[in-house]
Amino acid sequence: MLNIVIFGGPGSGKGTQSEKIVEKYGINHISTGEVLRAEIKKGTELGKTAQSYIDYGQLIPDELMINILAGVLDSFVDSKGVIFDGFPRTIPQAEALKKVLAERGQEVSIMLDLDVPEEELIARLIKRGQESGRADENEENIKKRLVVYHNQTAPLIDWYKQDGKYQHINGFGKLEDIFAEICEAVDKVK
Questions:
Q1: How far apart are CA 141 and CA 138, in angstroms?
Q2: 128 is catalytic
């Protein structure tokens, strides 16, 4: 099983690169953002709860995300692996993911860290918000999300380094060059 965690600040290209990885390696894709947006759109209780956190630029509570993740993971049949996009975002989530995978006889193969300068992240997110009409992608919310990212999510870099799974990727430049660097790293753990 090829289980990849793709990591980076909001707007770092995780979704774009995840699609390319899924296509090349034939693995499943779990985007917590997409799962949550679908629940919000359906108006489920989970969606309403998630929306209340998102409205304030906060992360969804760990237990809620882990339950969602385990359900999606178990829904895949004959999977060659999974790319986790937007999860884990905290050390407790990383520990929970390790446990969920271990219960299924699996582990994280590699954690790809898409490193992009903050000014570029802000510019990308503002542009994406304008193009997609996503109301949560305005400058005020983007800055809140970056503060949350630096305080709660960035410590995962050291956690995955200690776990021997960390791989730095230059996330700024041509899409093809970034993807080539990703493939080189993934091919070493396949």
A1: 6
A2: yes
Q: Please tell me the pTM assigned to this model.
A: 0.86
The residue type at 82: V
Range of the domain at 36: 2-189
Q: Which entry of 24, 127, 134, 188 is annotated as an active-site residue?
A: 134
pLDDT score at 12? 94
| 38-56 pLDDT per residue, tens | 888 989 887 888 888 878 8
CB 3 within 8 A of CB 108: yes
Q: Answer for the pair 24, 94: CB distance below 8 angstroms, yes or no.
A: no
Per the structure, the count of domains in the chain is 1
User: What pLDDT does 138 receive?
Assistant: 81
Choice among 20, 37, 98, 128 that is catalytic? 128
Q: Which amino acid belongs to residue 68? A: I
Q: What is the CATH number of the domain that holds 10?
A: 3.40.50.300
Residues in the chain with pLDDT < 50? none
Respond yes or no: is residue 134 known to be catalytic: yes
Clarify whether 14 is annotated catalytic. Answer: yes
